[in-house]
Amino acid sequence: MITFAIGLSIVLLFVILFLLFRIGTLASIFRGSSQRAVGTTRTSNRVNSVLFLLFLIVGGAAFAWSFADSWDTMNLPLASVHGEWTDDLFWTTMIVIGVVFVITQILLFYYSYKYQHQDEKRAYYYPHNNKLEIVWTMIPAVVMALLVFGGWKTWTKITSAAPEDAVVIEVMGKQFNWMVRYPGADGQLGVAKHTLIDATNEFGIDFSDPAAMDDFMPMEIHVPKGQPVLFKIRSRDVIHSVFLPHFRVKMDAVPGMPTKFWFVPSKTTDEMRSETGNPDFKYELACTEICGRGHFAMRFILVVDEPEDYQAWLAKQPIFAEQNPEVVAKFSSSFSQQAVAENKTGETAAEVKSEL
Amino acid sequence: MSSTDISIHPDVHHAHDEHDHHHDQNFLEKYIFSQDHKVIAKQFLFAGIFWAFIGGFLSVIFRLQLGWPEATFTFLEPILGGWIQNGKLDPEFYLALVTMHGTIMVFFVLTAGLSGTFANFLIPLQIGARDMASGFMNMLSFWIFFLSSVIMFWSLFLETGPAGGGWTVYPPLSALPQAIKGSASGMTMWLISMALFIVSQLLAGVNYITTIINLRTKGMSMTKLPLTVWALFFTAILGLLSFPVLFSAALLLIFDRSFGTSFYLSDIYIAGEALTNTGGSPILFQHLFWFLGHPEVYIVILPAFGLVSEVIATNSRKPIFGYRAMIGSMIGIAILSFVVWAHHMFVTGMNPFLGSVFMFLTLIIAVPSAVKVFNWIATLWRGNIRFSTGMLFAIGFVSLFISGGLTGIILGNSALDIQLHDTYFVVAHFHLVMGAAAFFGMFCGVYHWFPKMFGRMLDEKLGAVHFWMTFIAVYLVFMPMHYIGIAGFPRRYYNWTGFETFNIFTDMNTFISLAAIIGFGAQFLFLFNFIYSIFKGRRATQNPWHSNTLEWTTPVLPGHGNWPGEIPTVYRWPYDYSKPGAPEDFIPQNVPFSATQSSNLPNEKDLE
């Protein structure tokens, strides 16, 4: 019954709208305004030009208000060193384009209002002015050159080779969660191959590689504050993307092509908790490359510790090989030597390629 | 059937020469398998409008999910069937929705619907030709597009759903059916449909270029062409050079999917087994895809540039400011569009040095784009503006192009792209600059050339209401998206409530969804206006906008061959509006200088 009532009222609404439309058409014929060239009637010009001006003023005010109102939420708290550079560059660029935005929109709508049709007036025949064209080609060109220079310098610094002493962590994306691996005491990640993956050995680690024996895989990423951290990123099925919004870090995880990103965390989780006033604050890692059904749910937690807490945490982590001796037992040593040799060369080649 | 074809065909060619014979065509040849460019243009327009409503409807469904993530949508069950489980949208179906929304809007509406309609309709009419260089190829182009549309539409109804890997269909996700349901038959149909689509585009592009180069009427030199034709010319060239690359990308993907090759696949362990593919590179696909993908956004926006330039000049009653600068900037944009593709790939693990190069090249594009905007604004300056609906949309276009284009300067900067890549900032950017802006260009064209297409006028009042509702809705939808994008909210998320960082924007998303639904609703005003006016609209006069270009010298409803008598000769450029000394404020292109002594400039005194 209610559906019927709703349907009926919608139909009635359409009938009323249609009648209004017809009355409007007939009235315009009666008034004779349909005899004039389109767009030259007084009402149409008045209404539309005033609306453009109103749109400029009301729209501009609404934009300014909503921008100011969302300011705090859109500026995510920052927790990395290079994030400061990109945030500065971002807001500098925003100011530049903001100025252009305001000027051009004002001119566009103001001219639309000011130069609305008037019967006695005639437009000014002004086909070109080469000096003007050159001026407004050169100004954007110079501004762009400056922005490119700023961007290039920042980009080069961010993508430069990671420092030698960086904490190395492997981050692997899979459908639909992240997994991380620490190299353990020797600082070397053991060789891994996708053909060795099974339900327990999810990384496909080759345990005949001695470097693999002390690797461990925690359920959270822990990193020390103030030290460079190098993520070695890979994927074992489709493309994923590592995104740490608070650290301004993003890099795709690509199957068959290891990638990396290094950064220096500048605030511990505890510091961020007191800064945001949120006692439950956690740094989150999200996936930003469409990867299937669970794309929206690939959440992983990252904790920034003070260096001494980090060391304490490291010491507590259980070693995978020790906990899963049956996995390690499957590997014979002869098979390994070869795999190690193969993979080592592959890895260095990739390393060289992606360094500036 | 074939025998009728044989007997009728000579008649068709005959009609080309003697125009009193065109009524000999039967219904099928006149309206269905027509070789007349005007009919083909209308076919593309109808198909484009159909697809636009489908694409818009899909976006409304996923906006419902995003705006009210906790709600149950049992009321959608009659339409969506099994895709709704216990009132919840299936997450894979959500991905299929965004994928199909993108594919449909970019390719089927804003490529085929926009340049298909206006290149077919305007090129012969504005350059003074009887028809396209090859009417038959033109017809093939539409029907292959139609076939491609049927396949894409069919894929919406597959049990495993249509393609769901994003409109960019990056492998391995799109290559492996075990990765997502949409990569089963849905993806196969997507690839077949797109391959056919490309064939259609190439047939059309060759035809447009040939026609513009070879079939211009007497006196119509390249520098007397309206900017619409210039824009459509560059669009066709871009399409011809870039679509084959997408074709090869699609072909290699078909090979990987069906014939066991490893162009894009390497070291994959999925669904409990390790695949044997090695040595492929998913990044290769991205390079190939964006080698088309980036020119594609200019294929979408260039025709809009042309239409808007024409409408702004006509309705400001002023020559377009800097005609040569406008052509020059389009050449610049067209050339640069081929060397910026990798700015979509700054964080894919591509060599950072390449990132620097592509950042440099990308930011250069801002210069010709800025020149265009300044020229449009200078055209409005001291004009005598008539607010026809076409003009409203043209002004709206410039506004949206500025708003969306400026953020491109941020996204083109690789250092800033790290944070913003694949967030709603990107969504806001490209929806404003190539989505909404190109749509506004299309509306601008439809309102302006409707009288020439159907011999009747669209209702101006309804048009104004349509414009204002759409214009406001577009800004209400996409401006707030910048805010959530700056905060890092990622694209293509079915639901963000699992993340503390992203669950602070519920109200904003509800607001955006409401604005989107209102904006979509406003399009039904247009649909009503469009259908009603075809049959019952006010009858148009021959030149309702007092425009200079050649199409307005044809009869109200031009027949086969466009001009009943001889094709008019062209003497002047198309922008002699409000020339001092002329009695009217416009002088059509076919008026010789000898007839306008009072308004001739010093250098025009001796011209014919």
Automatic annotation (TrEMBL), chain A:
What are the names of the required cofactors? Answer: Cu cation
Q: What is this protein called?
A: Cytochrome c oxidase subunit 2
Which EC number(s) does UniProt give? Answer: 7.1.1.9
Q: Which residues form the Cytochrome oxidase subunit II copper A binding domain?
A: 164-316
Chief subcellular location equals membrane
Where is it localised? Cell membrane; Membrane
Occurrences of domain Cytochrome oxidase subunit II transmembrane region profile (ranges): 67-162
Q: What class of enzyme is it?
A: translocase
Transmembrane region(s): 6-30, 50-68, 88-113, 134-152
- What SUPFAM superfamilies is this protein classified in? Cupredoxins (SSF49503), Cytochrome c oxidase subunit II-like, transmembrane region (SSF81464)
Q: Is Electron transport one of the keywords UniProt gives this record?
A: yes
Name the chemical reaction catalysed here.
4 Fe(II)-[cytochrome c] + O2 + 8 H(+)(in) = 4 Fe(III)-[cytochrome c] + 2 H2O + 4 H(+)(out)
Alphabetized, the UniProt keywords read: Copper, Electron transport, Membrane, Metal-binding, Respiratory chain, Translocase, Transmembrane, Transmembrane helix, Transport
Q: What is the UniProt remark on how the cofactor binds and its stoichiometry?
A: Binds a copper A center.
Region Disordered: start-end pairs: 337-356
UniProtKB/TrEMBL annotation, chain B:
Region: Disordered, residue numbers = 586-608
Location comes to: Membrane
Q: List the membrane topology term(s).
A: Multi-pass membrane protein
Which parts pass through the membrane? Answer: 44-66, 93-123, 135-157, 190-215, 227-255, 288-309, 321-341, 353-378, 390-412, 424-450, 462-490, 510-532
Query: What Pfam family does this protein match (any one)?
Result: COX1
Question: Mind listing the UniProt keywords for this protein, alphabetically?
Answer: Electron transport, Heme, Iron, Membrane, Metal-binding, Respiratory chain, Transmembrane, Transmembrane helix, Transport
Per UniProt, residues of the Cytochrome oxidase subunit I profile domain are 27-571
Keyword Cell membrane assigned: no
In terms of PANTHER family, this protein maps to: CYTOCHROME C OXIDASE SUBUNIT 1
Its recorded name reads Cbb3-type cytochrome c oxidase subunit I
